[in-house]
Specification:
The complex is a heterodimer of chains A (289) and B (316). Chain A is mainly alpha-helical and 289 residues long. Chain A is built from eleven helices and no strands. Chain A is globular. Chain B is built from 14 helices and two strands. A two-stranded antiparallel sheet of chain B has the order 1-2. In chain B, α3 packs parallel to α5. The termini of chain B are close together. The interface between A and B is large, with 46 and 44 residues.
Chain lengths: 289, 316
Amino acid sequence: MTQLILFNIFNGLIVGAFYALMALGLSLILNLSGVINFAHGGFLALGAYLAYSLMPLVGFWGALVVAPLLTAALGLAIERLLIRRVYGRDPLYSLLLTFGLAYILEDLARYIWGPQSLPYPIPAALARPLSTQFFFLTGYRLFMVALVALTVAALFVVLGRTRLGMRIRAGTLDLETVSALGVNVRVLRNLNFGLGIYLAGLAGVLAAGMLGLQPTIGTSLIMPSFVAIIVGGLGSLPGTLFGGLLIGVAQGLATVFMPSASEAIIYVMMGLVLLMRPRGLLGEEGRLK
Amino acid sequence: MTQAQRVGATALLWLVLLTMPFWIGAVGGYTELASRVVVMALAATALNFLLGYTGTLSFGHAAYFGLAAYGAGMTLKYVAPSTGLGMLIGVAVGTLAAAAIGALIVRLRGVYFAMVTIAFGQVFYFIAFRWNTVTGGDDGLTGWRRLPLDLAGIRLDIQNHDTAFYYLALACFALSAGAMALLLSSPFGRTLQAIRENERRARFLGIAVERHLWLSFVISCAFVSLAGTLYALLNNFTDPRALRWDMSGNFVIMAVLGGMRSFWGPLVGAAVFVVLQDYVSSHTENWMSVVGLIFVLVVLFFPRGVLGLVQRRGEQ
């Protein structure tokens, strides 16, 4: 029983790491540009499929590096072409636009790579269990957790220590002033969008190794990412990270005690948070509008 | 548009709706498609009560639509063989859920309100999806049919006559649209529009903004629930897709496509969207891309919708 609980907590942590990676990208875009990127899941799927197609050419490790970058490049292009046009308009339009994009991206993946699920091979060195007692601790799972932790740490260093990160944080608080100080806000939002999409692409490649590939892989991960943002706190990146891990573990534990409720539980948590603390666990006050 | 033109246009609209079963076959459609247009029009008009007239974006109305659909279907399957009772229970279930969830979310605004409505919609999707023994899970709720309706001694055979069902749906649409129009022209409706235009000023005037938003949300969801029960009866079937997020997105795009600042806009939008979706999905497997493209094109080129375009031309 202990082992079962440990297994599911660990599993939940991995799932939570995915949610957090997705949700951090969503949060970045939402905070700076006020756009809920519904197409985030579509970009995630694209990252996964690109890695799948690149692997025969550049190998597992090459795909892990190149696919998220390609996805981010596509994100930069789509932002310039489409998303940019709805900044400052009623949020209704950004939602509808990214909603339509999500449809198109999912259909594109289905059109190019087919509706059936595809296996995503991982190196044998990573697939082995590390211990006979804790069989679930395969190298790939540990590797994933480590890589996500590293990525998140790098993200916070970029945001906290670099000029770009400083501008993103400043723009989140007061975009007009940042613009008046001579920062090119269009470029800033573009780069910020690309950064968010990079995280989605990376999450996609990692998820593919664990769940395999299917066109709906992105849509199944995006709703929990919304929940992670709301539970963690609107406007707070550490909150989003915490929220993602928290709902992942909650989902893992629910799998032990009541498997059929494992999806619903995170929405129940969201309801409780909204009831008792509408701004989210680590959210700043006055961010509800 | 002048007053006379407006009355003329509304009269023409109703003439088209009232005669639809007689000519839709001739233009390549079928009675069921006409019924679907009317049911979706009811849902989109109800959503627009909130979106267009209260200025609040819900991206989760499919939850109440689908809950009501299951409410009606499960009543007919498990409780009693009565279409009327099924509709009543369906609407009650959807409205009660909206009342509870509405109370949790009225403090949020704008993009966050939309995000929370989307997320809450998923709870019911997963319940319907997972609770196989009762809801039929992914395969949907089958093993029941809509039954003839007894209205004050008159028997309306909606079970075997698709045309009769069409007129039942149209009657529901007409009554609901009338009720919503009345509400919107009442002091309550004017207050909602005042909140839409300037929430802060409304608050300073002493209006209980949260309570008004909540009421508007619940009223909107009650009519969406009615549409949900009709949708289940129309198909003699309901499945989890009726309450998934893409259905919510469809309601929003119908309202926007038709023109959310005009009362009949969502009806026009629903007609265009439903017919287009029916046509596209029977001609290509990649209907998702086409629907997605509609979303993108509407946002970029027709943000005011079809009727918005017509109105603007009239003003010039």
